[in-house]
Structures are given as structure tokens and as C-alpha cells.
Write a structure and sequence with these properties.
136 residues; two-stranded antiparallel sheet; 2 helices
């Protein structure tokens, strides 16, 4: 595998990892108001992606999402005694998801995805230019 191929493989692994990161952040946003059906059921817990390096062909190092772990921070609480999930004091436990944090994470993942895409485009342009020079 050439250096250009290794570059594209590493960038592609970054794109895959950022896609999974965006999916997890999107799930967090989608469930930002998902409560339990009654006080005994926990609401949705925010998920955090776990990244790890992995060796690709020709010694290139890429990245992948190993999985996601639950954020163990406290749930938000809101006074709403008429809600079915309200406890005996009238408070409802809400997910520990901050949509502002998730939107910033989505933006960061999007930019990282774009950076990896630019790396692939640069490697392809270099390969194309090399072929053009060899044809002369």
C-alpha cells in the first residue's frame, strides 16, 4: 500500500468515526426530553463515544469508535406534579443531556469529518498530478 493509499485509509477511518460520533450525539438530542414512564424508571442517559486508535494496512494509524458509555452525571430535575413520572414530591427526573453541548459536539464532528474529507481530496489530487507528470 502506498503512502497516498495509507493517507486515504486513515482519513476514511476518521470519517467513519466522526459519522458514528454524529449518530450518538443525534440520539442524545433526540432523547433530551425522554423521561421514564413512572418514577421508578430512569430517564434516558446521555451516551459518550469512546475513540481508540487502530492499525491500518501498511502501518497507517486510524481511529474507530470502540463503543459508547453512559454519562453518569446526575439527572436534571423539574417540578411537574402532574407528570406520570413525578415522584412523591412532584419532581420528574429528566435526561442528563444538554442540547447545547450536543450541538457543539455535532459541529465539532462535522468539522473533523470535513477535515478528513479534505485530506482524501488532497491525496487524490496528488495522485492525479503524479500520473499527469508520468504521462509526459
Amino acid at each position: 500500500m502506498s503512502d497516498l493509499d495509507a493517507t486515504m485509509a486513515a482519513a476514511a477511518s476518521g470519517m467513519r468515526a466522526q459519522t458514528q460520533r454524529m449518530r450518538i450525539a443525534s440520539e442524545n438530542v433526540a432523547n433530551a426530553n425522554s423521561t421514564g414512564i413512572d418514577p421508578s424508571v430512569e430517564p434516558y442517559r446521555r451516551q459518550i463515544p469512546i475513540f481508540e486508535t487502530n492499525e491500518l494496512d501498511a502501518g497507517a494509524v486510524g481511529v474507530r469508535v470502540r463503543g459508547a458509555v453512559s454519562d453518569r452525571t446526575e439527572f436534571r430535575r423539574e417540578f411537574n406534579p402532574s407528570h406520570p413520572a413525578a415522584d412523591e414530591t412532584g419532581y420528574v427526573r429528566l435526561p442528563n443531556v444538554d442540547t447545547l453541548v450536543e450541538m457543539m459536539d455535532l459541529r465539532d464532528a462535522s468539522r473533523a469529518y470535513e477535515a478528513n474529507l479534505n485530506m482524501i481530496e488532497a491525496a487524490r489530487a496528488m495522485a492525479s498530478r503524479t500520473l499527469d507528470l508520468l504521462r509526459r
